[in-house]
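User: Show me sequence and structure for the first protein, then do the same for the second.

Assistant: Starting with the first protein.
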Amino acid sequence: MFIIAAIAYAFSIFVDVSVYHFKYYIQDSKNVRHLLSLINIFQYCSRGFILIFIPIMAYVTESVKDKNEVWYITVVAHFLVVLFLLPLYSYKFTYFFALKVIMILNRFFGKSKSFTLKKIEKQSKRQGEIFLTDWILFAINYIAGFLFSISITFLYYINFSYPQKALMLSSMTQVINMFGSVLLILLIDPKIMGAIDDGKGYKEIKILTTSRILAHITLVLILFYIQ
């Protein structure tokens, strides 16, 4: 059971991050709105996998009451996130994965007019160009990913230390989750989408992927420290 929960959580984060790669690599100037709607459908899948993770964690916490198992699930979940995100550094994997997903979704939710996907080549790296704005983007996304992930996964483990404060802990994690989500919505999404609209975005998406990976590595280290 805990393997299912860990995989579900890891895949939810993978979907959330991969949609940025979808928007960069897959474009169709004649079907922009339709393409974005298909990408949004795929992104909603991440919420569905969270709905698998949460009931299992709640069951293990409240019914099984095994603190060690909750710890193992949480560690494995964050470790799998790192493994799932690493393939996104591969241009071939990202493009063809995005292409297949969009084609499958279009079969179910498509329209009668022709649907042509344009392949966007990855941008060449610019040597020696590291701007302050890149570090700001990295820091904000790291904090946002950290807050978003710790609020969802650490609740169940911490609950064992404060069994009488379950409702208060749940409320606090929702507030933490809200701050992480606000940072993503207000500061990360506009920056990356604006870069893609300007014909750029490759560097920004790599920064996003790297910061997310480091955030989950940090969470794994914290789990080993508090064990």
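Switching to the second protein now.
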Amino acid sequence: MTDLFFAKTYSPLSSSAIIAKEKANMDETRFNHCVRVSETAQKLARLNNYDEQKAALAGFVHDYAKQVPVAEYKQVIKTQGFAQDLLNWNRAIWHGIVGTYFIKRDLQITDPEILTAVDRHTTGDTKMTTLDKIVFMADFIEPGRDFPGVEEARKITFANLDAGVGYQLAHSLSYLATKREKIYPRTFEAYNVWSIDNN
């Protein structure tokens, strides 16, 4: 972990300060996941002619708010201008969409592209930037992931980022449907766009 460094932080805070704050905000397992997502995002950026350092930072902070207490999330949703329908969901959705609030507040990162990628990393969206897709897929295929189909997901994603997005959305919808869990509307809408020609 000692070689983790971000040349540009998109924040008044230094690289070491951002790393320290993130480490203090989560357990070791989650922190190590964020490091692996950062590294995978950098690889995907290289393959897709995107800024590797920006992708690495976005991948690193994507789960910054994953372990924020539920009560704190609810308070932020009620008071900080978020859609009140979010109260009907849970941390799985909140840590992306509402997580941007905590990243701005604590890490002082205000770059719109990074924040949008964090916002969309759990749900996808009908329109996604290259960075959105990189973080979305890096989170899904980082080396610590182990689920049926992950090797196929890696192969597809490293060959074609858009096809990877379609694969993940199809996989996620199938999983949620099997578990009879609610599907966030944005995910279903994204599937209808990205599954076409990409799965």
